[in-house]
Amino acid sequence: GHWCFARHEDVNSLLRDRRFGRQLLHVLSRAELGWPEPAAHLAPFAAYEQHALLELEPPAHTRMRMLVNRPFLARVTERLRPRLEAIAHELVDRFAGSNEVELLEQFATPLPVIAICEVLGVPVSLAPQLLSWSHDIVAMYQARRDPVVEQQAARATREFAACVRALFDERRRAPGDDLLSALLASESDGNRLSDDELTSTAMLFLIAGHEATVHAIGNGVKALLEQGVDVRAAFATPESSERVTEELLRFDTPLHLFTRYALEDAEVGGVRFARGERIGLLLGAANRD
Q1: How far is the first Cα of the chain from the last one, in angstroms, to the nearest whole number?
Q2: Of 206, 235, 255, 269, which sits 20 to 30 A from 164 (CA to CA)?
Q3: pTM for the whole thing?
Q4: Pick from 150, 168, 182: which is nearest to 73 by CA?
Q5: What backbone torsions phi and psi does residue 14 show, to the nearest 5 degrees?
Q6: Residue of 180, 191, 212 whose CA lies nearest to 62
Q7: What mean pLDDT do residues 265-278 have?
Q8: How far apart are CA 263 and CA 58, in angstroms?
Q9: What one-character DSSP code corresponds to residue 252?
Q10: Could you tell me if residue 189 is left (phi over 0), alpha (psi between -120 and 50 degrees) or otherwise beta?
Q11: Contact between residue 67 and residue 193 where contact means Cβ atoms under 8 Å apart
């Protein structure tokens, strides 16, 4: 029901085109768009999305990004490298003595969730529950969404948010050297993240950071095996490793479709779009153009 763009030039430019955005309700009302009010049973999910950084447009996005970026300065994230490498080695060491390994289950899934838990300051023992909530929420963005998927997503969002709020309450009483504490302390020109923004941001780190990483690892290893790549040579140096990783993300990106709304009347590639129309950006196709 909407136009999709597949050429690299189009997708690359449209991702940066300020005439199009992820959000629409900051320029048009539901009544103007002919959209119904959100279903009551989806209220927890709507509350999460309302403050999720990936769903916002400037100036709300600019303000939140400035506050969230502060704990992610390069010198801070570089300190994480040894621990991330250690987690990866610990998981691989468990393969010893096995004739067969289920990569997604035994490596790709636990690696990012353990890492994100440790960075956030969330007990790793919560990882299985966090994964369950994450899977139920992500189902809302996939095909064949139905009432059962919606009910599960609403429940998962409500329970996940309650868990995150409790963790933030603990950090208020006893701050630590973790991302939750850093987010609580982050300030810019007198601005701070609200409780709802803190909750959605912490949830988003796990949901978005985990899902894409799992699929990037799975797709990447599959491509290396099918293409017959000499893996020892490909990952022989940090420089070659970075090149190969970038190429694997291009070759089979973990997310293939993003949508945008026209924030004003616009013309792209000879096609006219009225304000409020939706377009699709096919990342997988653009990366193979």
Answers
A1: 23
A2: 255
A3: 0.85
A4: 182
A5: -70, -30
A6: 191
A7: 94
A8: 12
A9: T
A10: left
A11: yes
Q: Token match 């468990």: residue?
A: 94
Rounded Cα distance between 50 and 276, Å, is: 18
At position 63, the amino acid (one-letter code) is R
Residue 81 has pLDDT above 90, yes or no: no
Closest by CA to 270, choosing from 3, 1, 2, 24, is 3
Q: How far from 224 is each of 108, 115, 172, CA to CA, in Å? A: 15, 24, 46
Task: Residue 7: name the closest of 277, 274, 271 by CA.
Answer: 271
Instruction: Locate 1 and state its tokens.
Output: 């029901």
Measured CA to CA, the distance from residue 35 to residue 49 in angstroms comes to 17
**Residue 280, φ and ψ in degrees, nearest 5:** -115, 140
| 74 or 37, which is more confident | 37
Structure tokens at 71: 């704990």
Which one is predicted more confidently, 3 or 206?
Answer: 3
Sign of the Cα pseudo-torsion (101, 104, 105, 110, in order): positive
Residue with tokens 């479709």: 257
